[in-house]
Write a structure and sequence with these properties.
- This protein is mainly α.
- Helices cover 53% and strands 5% of the residues.
Length: 263
């Protein structure tokens, strides 16, 4: 086996994902490869390093880094996928249940919902900061269960009167949402007053993304990732300002909406 066989196989697959426009998936594989490379202490990772004992040590290493079980599971599944590709191309030997001793499932025990009293504070108490008021306004729009990715990528053409019609970013599912009077003032406040630079550039409804990058390009994906990180940091600042102790991110916020709606 090549001394860098696993690394080469992983990078080839990551490049294929990029060519297919699957930038988010490629990004996850990159993170998994980088993490395992650091653990191995070499930039040239061989398939021979993928052993049951090494995987158990890697799992313990990730836990010592305080990664959550679902993140560890994601990394392990990425490694398993690359190893299986190596087996399929005869670069690595088949080993029955190679990943049996590490967690590759989904941990459903993590509590993500924010208590209703803290949600009320987060949405309605004045943070006395214009920047945090804008973050709070975006959070209010998200409290219909819409993911941040869908809200950020809405275009002006998606709004017809008081009806939003768009396709989910993740699944492509068509959605139709009525904008109630209570939300219309927030929509007007956040609405993007600029027009698209070029026809192939998106004309976003809200000024969350700049619209300077072509649709579905890697630059647009990277801008979205940067914007998501900034929004999550702003949510943390909002929570700290309002003395909310729960962990607040766009993901926990969406989960909290679902839990509140359920009960």
């Amino acid at each position: 086996m090549r001394k860098d066989g696993f690394t080469v196989c992983a990078n080839n697959y990551i490049n294929c994902l990029r060519q297919e426009g699957r930038y988010a998936t490629a990004h996850v594989y990159e993170n998994a490869l980088r993490s395992f490379t650091i653990f191995c202490g070499t930039e040239c990772v061989s398939f021979s390093l993928i052993t049951r004992e090494n995987l158990k040590r890697y799992s313990s290493y990730l836990m010592s880094c305080r990664l959550k079980l679902n993140t560890i599971s994601t990394y392990m599944r990425m490694l398993r996928c690359i190893y299986n590709k190596g087996v399929d191309t005869h670069q690595a030997p088949y080993i029955h249940r190679l990943f049996r001793d590490v967690f590759t499932g989904v941990d459903t025990r993590q509590k993500k919902a924010i208590p209703i009293n803290e949600l009320h504070t987060l949405l309605y108490k004045d943070p006395q900061s214009e920047k945090l008021r804008r973050t709070q306004a975006i959070a209010n729009l998200l409290f219909c269960g819409m993911p941040f990715a869908d809200l950020a990528h809405l275009e002006k053409s998606n709004l017809e009167g008081n009806i939003l019609k768009y396709n989910r970013i993740k699944t492509g599912t068509p959605m139709s949402i009525e904008i109630l009077e209570s939300a219309s003032c927030i929509v007007s406040r956040l609405r993007n007053t600029h027009s698209a630079v070029l026809p192939e550039h998106p004309d976003y409804l809200f000024y969350i993304l700049s619209g300077k990058n072509k649709r579905d390009g890697e630059a647009a994906y990277r801008e979205y990732q940067s914007t998501l990180r900034r929004f999550n940091n702003d949510l943390k600042s909002l929570a700290k300002k309002l003395r909310i102790h729960s962990s607040v991110t766009s993901y926990t916020f969406r989960h909290s909406w679902a839990t509140t709606a359920k009960y």
